[in-house]
Amino acid sequence: MYKKIIFTVLFGTSLVLSANIATAQNAESYESLMKKGNDKYSAKDYISAKTYYEMALKQKANDPTAKKKLDETVKKIQEDGARQEVFYAHLDTGDQFYNQQKYEEALAEYEAALKVFPEDKYVGGQAAAVRAILKERQDKQDAFDTAMSQGESLLAEDNYDAAIMQFETAIEIFPNDKLPKEKLAEAKQKKQLYNEKVTRFDNLMEEARQFGLRKNFEAAIGKLDQALELFPNDMEANAKRNEYQTAKGIADQYNGIIAVADQLYENKSYKEAKAQYQSALAVVKGDAYATDMIARLDPLIAEQDAEEAARIAAEQEAARLAAEAEAARIAAEQEAARLAAEAEAARLAAEAEAARIAAEQEAARIAAEQEAARLAAEEAARIAAEEEAARLAAEAEAARIAAEEEAARQAALAAAEAERQATIKSMLDAADALFNQEDYANAKVKYQEVVNFDAGNAIATAKIQEIDGIFAQKAAELEANYNKAMTAGNQAMSEEKFAEAITQYQSALALKPEDTAATTQLAAATKAENDRVAALRSQYDKFIKEGDANFRTNTFDKAIEAYTKADELGLETYPSEMIARISEIIEQNKLYELNSEPLLLASGEARRFDFNKIDVAVRRSNYIIIKVRNPHPEKTFPMIVSFGGEGGKNGGFVLPIAATADEKTYIFRIGSQYKWFSEDNTWIEIISENNEVEIGKLEVSRGN
Q: Which domains are delineated in the chain?
């Protein structure tokens, strides 16, 4: 099952817990807690005593005896804390001066610290070391200072070799002094960086030269620009850059002309191409490429000229042949005219013969007509009868056609009506589709078009009425939703839940975009929220500033406390990121991992974890990290964490284990307890009172 990890930071003078210590079924009795608190008080273990008195007050709220003992204990803790703060302030300042080799100032701070704890071994040793350094330096100081001063001056002038010699002289005078060694390392590093810079410069100059040889002036200029970034005033680099810049201009002009010439060459415009290559030669005298291309173009131009002459000759021959063909055509037309005249004479002779024959035939025709006249009279009577029959047939046919035309007209009317009904159906279908899509506004427009097309259409009229009803319902719902959003917004404003109010007023404006009341209330809520956030931002910035300041000085417990307060404001993720970063630093700086696998301690069982003594130089920044899980989350109980060395117990603290099944991570700045700093501690012991407890990770770490 997933276990939530809770970080709890504990300080040397107080316990800051993320959950209240609640009274549970099997909690320890008031009398037992008071007795343990008194025992711890008598043993001057005020931190543990404070925890027991606080737990006793949970059993008997406002109990005067417990309150009095708690006040006395807090006062003792504050007095011890004040002494330790004075001691550590002088110690830390002394160490800072010592690291800066300000030995007189360091000695003054160490002596001030010894007035608080006269027997402190670390401070006494540091003070003795400083006195020895000051005594040793007295005789050699002038020579050392001269060497250091000259070294600093030479280093400022970039005279690295001479500066190195001076710092080496200073080291010979004071071999244990860190400052000349640091300055020597700085001078060597600067010399190395300078040499690397020179090497880089030389390489760039060579690359520029190579690009210049290949006529790639743009790349050469780029390399020279990089070289000039290293040494802006180098005369050679500046001269070369000017040279290549001029060459690049000529090359760009030449390349532009050559590009045009090459394109003309590809297009077989040889004469124009030759002119361009000649222009290129005017830019770059004796250019081999342009000269070669001109030589190549001369025979091609001659070949083109020959082809042009041949084309002209062919055109002239074609014109001659066309003239001959035209003369032949005219002669042919004249011959055709002669033959046509002969044919006309033959036709006239034939017509005369035909006239003779026609006269003979006319006489025969007259005789035949007389016979025909007789027969015609008889035929006239027959025709009259046939005409009457034809008239009657025509009348019958006209009647038939009229009947067909009427039938066709009725059919056309029926088709027109069918088409009208189809149009109405199509319009209704389109309107119904919009209605089914709940696009009621456009649907109403379509239904109105049906009514306009087919006055009084019952279906469309009914749908329009239905849509009007829907609009009325929606308007009522919109008004109700608007009123609901405004009411909720006003309620949120009265409860100073401005972000929620903003959301509600925005919802109201979405329903009524131009509403004055919602607009006014939204502006008021926005201003109130901005004011609230600004106030939170001021608090947040204060906590972040405090956290960052403590982080920079590796005071991680106070940094976490400040970041936690900032994180609770919920403005940014930066505080939680910094808490995670501090936890990672503490984890990375662990000195001893005393336990890593889950370890179940029975009620009252003590488990000791041994480790080698820690260098006094890093004890001040030590933390103890303990992961704890309560197997019986219905109970609360104390867990005692002690530490000591060969001489016995030196100190400790009490963890009130809360009634929760979640695994909790406790971070305790043990370095703030003087006995941890001043004594050679080699063990940590854990005892769980009145309940079993599961110990996870147990580490000793350092903050820096």
A: 6-85+589-702 (2.60.120.1380), 296-411 (no CATH)
